[in-house]
Write the structure tokens for this entry.
Amino acid sequence: MIRNLNIILIFTSALMLAGVYALKFSIENTASIRTALIAEIDSQEGQLSLVKADEAVLSQPGHIEPIVRRHEMALAIAPVKQEQFGAFADLPMRPAKPNTAAMDSLFESLAAGVDPIDAILEVEGIE
Amino acid sequence: MAVTAEDFGPTISLDGARKVRGNLTQARIRWMVLALVMGFGLVGGRLVQLGMVVQDSTIEGQARDVITATRPPILDRNGLEMAVDIRVPSLFAEPRRIIDVEEAVRKLRTVLPELDEAWLRNRLTGDKGFVWVERELSPAIQEKVMRLGIPGIDFITESKRFYPGMTEASHILGSTNIDNQGISGIENHMDGENVALLQDLGLARGNALAPVELSVDMRVQHVMHEQLVDAMTRYQAIAAAGVMMDIHTGEIIALASLPDFDPNDPATALVKDSFNRITAGIFEPGSIFKTVTMAAALDSGSVTINDQFDARFGIRFGRFTIDDFHGKHRILSLPEVYKYSSNIGTIRVMQAMGKEAYRAFLTTMGFDIRVPFELPEMRLPTVPKEFSDVGAATASFGHGLSVSPLHMVTAYAAFVNGGNYIAPTLYKRDIAEAEALYRRVLKPETSAEIRYLMRLNALEGSGSQMNKEALGYRVGGKTGTAEKVVDGRYSSNKVTNFFGSAFPLDNPRYAMIIMVDEPKLENAQSGTTAGWNAGMVTGRIVQRVAPMLGIAPDFSEILDQNLVPSVLR
């Protein structure tokens, strides 16, 4: 019985030893991967900060204006003038007087049983 | 001798020596097994315990974070970056690990020739563990140095402040030193608030800090800066400055002062004359101060908008006679006094009110103290504690006292917004927060009369040059041409010109002060008074920025007619 127990214990010990070593090495491996990843994230964050700073420079009004000025001629653009602003309220109303002659002819043809829309629908192929 | 069983106690059984040893061994093994089980149990229990511990990773790497400590990005009111952190490599050395100092010096100087040889040799010699060699380098230089393969020389990534707007908002932003601490402008103010504390605690890490949103609109800021640069060359001025404020919330929309500096290169901030003229410059405001006098007198009730004032003759104070510049020399109504910028008329307006009441009004408007504002660059205004008769007279048209343009824009904002004093701010503030801070300084009716006077001056008075530039945007304002004191006397050819304005006056939203210092004639047909330079700059700025601020031009005359007080219609 003791012998068996001993054998079992020896094997368990050996197995656990192997297990512990495997664990140790895998953890070391993971740690080095982690360090590498941290370094990579760090350098990418650094690059990102530079790219973001670049973007910020490019979107500054002070950066865009000279570009616009350079291409003013080619694109035929200029700063907006006061007269160019409009509002819906400024639009003239539709002419108050309806086109009575056209209306009369429409009603007459409808009364005669001819609907002008049919001709259009036929041309378009819609029934 | 006979031995009998009766003489002894119970029978003892004697085992053989072999069996005894066997039993003993078994007992020992049992104890050993128990001990081992307990030992393993202990180890196992400890492992479980360790597995349950949550690692506090926030403390890890704190030393590194002090160096890479970041500052929050600064955004304008539309979310455009005004200041960001970039990561840059910095070169350091560990002298105790350098094997051949001479070789290291020679090699390093092939990449960084600007380093002084003796200084570098001295730096790399010794038993120190860490010395900076050169901070904030470019990635390209880092690559070259790494290729040299010098032992004991390495890089560390540091945070550096970068201002993508370059010089445009320099006086607002200020700058930071090499350790990323704010030394001027809003950067300095932010440190006073909380950033320094966060950095000390090692909490200012990565991108964890929430961005700081300013009230500034970079588009407006750009236009103002550009127009001021233009004014500097157009009028050959020695300085120009401008500030625009939201009259309801007190938010500063734009603030620029020329000559300025590049915050990316803080050394340029030390150049003479590049101080912030809006907050740290105090000037005799000249005639733009007449608006203050008018507001004070109208609000006191001592004068009404219908009153007439005798401006036929200059006013004598002992040896001095104060007269008008291009005077009309007749009886003027109050709107005419303002429109023709009559010194005599303004003195009479002030005298109707009384100099003590006038002085008290200046205190109400905060002309005795610094404007409560975030920037650390502020100067105390100089306004006499008590006015003599002549002192009060000159003060009524803006001479004999010095205030900052920020004082003037705050006053103008209060005059046109219905009469509420609101301290300016560089941080975002909504109308509800602002209303809680309002302090009433004028009656709403007085504010309406001031709006009428300012618009009238733009239509018929000294602001007409400005109005031509910004037609349709209902701008109103007052010119101020303050003669400079040269060798103890007021000089007529060295002047500081101001234009104080507000727009759109039918429903005012913004107040602005523009200053042009010592302008010259633009051409033979123009003049050097404020309408020709500060006024024109104001007009050009409004013409550009009004559409950005959502103000559409409107040419209908009814808007101007509505501004006229009912008693004058």
In short: The radius of gyration of chain A is 42 Å. Residues 118 and 124 of chain A are 10 Å apart (CA to CA).
